[in-house]
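Please review this one:
***
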Amino acid sequence: MTIEFNERLQKLPPYLFIEIDRKKRKLQESGVDVIDFGIGDPDTPTPDFVISAMQEAVARPEYHRYPLGRGKSFFRQACALWFKKRFGVILNPDKEIVALIGSKEGIGHLPFAFLNQNEVTLAPEPGYPVYANATILAGGDPFFLPLKEINGFLPDLSAIPAPVLKKARLLFLNYPNNPTGAAAPDSFWKEAISFCDKYGIILASDAAYSEVYYGKKSKSIFQFPGGKEVGIEFHSLSKTFNMTGWRVGFACGHEKVLSGLATVKENLDSGVFEAIQAAGSAALAAPEGFTEGLRRMYRRRMETLVSGLNKLGISCCVPAGTFYLWVKTPEGENSTQFSTRLLEKFGIITTPGCGFGPSGDGYVRFSITLDESRIKEALSRLSKT
């Protein structure tokens, strides 16, 4: 019997981070001491107070049943309280918040709610692969918006062709940005909101790294006039509270957009385990000092890496946020060649920029989710060329 994947699945490239993990495991099995700057997975543990909340909640039989609906009321209220404290924006927990099995799940489901066949998602590139891949799986077409260093890694919305705009239904934006580390100024957010309002496009802001910033606080699109009228925002507890494996986050904003997303979810998943929602609520109630401590740690690591690479003659785009460093490849090497050389010669895993889109060629991404001692070891290896 011949088994064939459908055309949409065949259009997908191999998922970048799975490929990186395979390379890592193969090297480790051969005895190589691998230093992994690849996947952005926090190395510090989930806070004790979150684990304690989980331990208490998991023993409650009422949390052992199907977690149907938009999420437990207490979780959505915790999200609303956190949002008000952090951004000064009031959200209706009953109508403007939906619990997610991690923000990736919500981002992946959104195109299924709003794209018809061959309609368009406007997706930044280099960018998180899920924006385009979910669009393809939903039967839509991604139209890529190049992010260039000369423009501060902001897309040029005015350069989108009129025929594309007629078919565009979604615009994904992600700041602080993965993989470049760039931040968006207020003027750009205002422009994006006005653009989406003019063309009837849903703005989907991926704010997974909103709490990992090194200068000015990141902003929500809802802090700008008209933001809630054109879009939704995705928030993740993964990066903010070291909870990548827990799979919990939330979407918030435009009531009707969230209703569409919730309808897709109701038909395809059963929601977030309610004990995890209890743990997530505890995380969201954490004092500001916890996230400030994380930022200080990442700032120290980033300064160590940037300084060390610069001394070696390797140029970097110093980030305004995220725990990623966007590093320029040496002259004469593309991103795949440089990343491969780092891996094979030094046992250092990075992510080639071309894996995030064609505009990413000429760069590699370093993730600083590893101890500072390992960063120094990597720099030591690189100095022995």
